Amino acid sequence: QKSQNEKHQLGIMLSSSFRKVTSLIRPTAMRSFAIGPASGGEISDDLLEKLGSLSTQALVDGLWVMGWPSAQIDGARSLAPGMKCVGRAVTLNFVPARPDIAQDKPAAGESPEYEAFEKCGPNEVLVMSSVGPWESVGGDIKFLRLKQLAIGGLVTDGSVRDTDEIIDYGFPCFAYSTTARQGPAAMQPWECNGVISVSGTTVRPGDAIVGDQDGVVVVPAKVAETVYSIAHGREVIEDIVKEELTKNPGPPGKFYPFMSGKIKVDSPLGELLASKGITPENSNQFEGTADW
To answer: What is the pTM of this model?
Structure first.
């Protein structure tokens, strides 16, 4: 039979051990799931409009100058000539079909795809990640709702059905191709507004999506203002170079290509820009002026 002192010492040892164990498990228990935020930031309507005024290649160049990974969605092309889209991304992820996936997915109007639809309007672009380029993400009946919502655009690395009807709906649509296939046999919509991969390019909800005849570009919300500043400055310079070469025909190598943030003041391009009032004092395109 233990003395009172021995019992007291045993209690202290057990208490100390318990604290050590709980200190190890508490961070994991409190953290729950290890996952970052889906959205990377917010883009104002004004900035969205400014981004949409630029070409996709200017935006890609802006991100490239900053050292960001490739931002174009190579597997998405406009369904008809002249289509242009700009909007904040609403994302939808498809997963390969499996019986339990079909059973567990919210049914009918509660499906993730219809949840995504209802988040869309004129300033949103629905971005759908397909399991394959030839799999159908939808057709005329589903996408009639997108027409009713006056959506800013639809982008997918999969294919769409009922092409003529979708073109007639009037909203910009960018897809890998068109198809007669049914989608549910191959994949199921699983998550709305998560981080997705579209043709290997990451898209977060709220990112700016800009599409034109050259393709579709994802501008991360976190750096959208900086991307616009660089890309807009590049487009201004390219217009000046084009104007000069039109007036004085000759090889473009005298001025072009150029690297944003590295134009030398005493170079032919620097001197041409100075003649148009563009200098290191008012532009971030010159050597030593990069603000990114």
So the answer is: 0.86
